[in-house]
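A quick word before the example. In earlier lectures we treated sequence and structure as two separate objects. From today on, think of them as two lines of the same record. Here is Oxidoreductase written that way.
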Amino acid sequence: MTGMDGFTDVLDYPMYVVTAAADGERAGCLVGFASQCSMDPPRFLVWISTANHTHRVAHRASHLAVHALRRDQKPLAELFGERTGDDTDKFAGLEWRPAEGGAPVLADACAWLVGRVLDRVDGGDHTGFLLAPVAQSPRPSTTPRLLRFSDVRDLEAGHPA
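And the structure line, produced from the sequence above:
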């Protein structure tokens, strides 16, 4: 056991799909490192692997969309987590629309947030994108069971982290 494995091994955090668009290019990936980080003003921080194709697009994007998935949406998580945008159009066949800054919003997500990128933080092998919310999905009528790390632990990343 190294680093903080003893701590992180007990966590079962929600998984998100983050999407970005810049210079006519779309990208998206599955992430597990994300959280609200301020209430006033509202802020959200999402971490994207530097090895990921989405990282290159997100680094040029003015806005990112963060999508929460339901537990029954593992196939969507597999698409965004196991495939790389280097050779796959992950949006082909999906219903989506461009939002602020062109950030792709997935129609089937149970909840989503679009945020303007305020800052980028070097976290080592991940970059943190600090977002100021500019749009969000309507509040769901019921609290969904979210897709969690334990649901996707068996996925093989399109790009090793």
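Notice the following. The first helix runs from residue 5 to 8. We will return to this example when we discuss secondary structure assignment.
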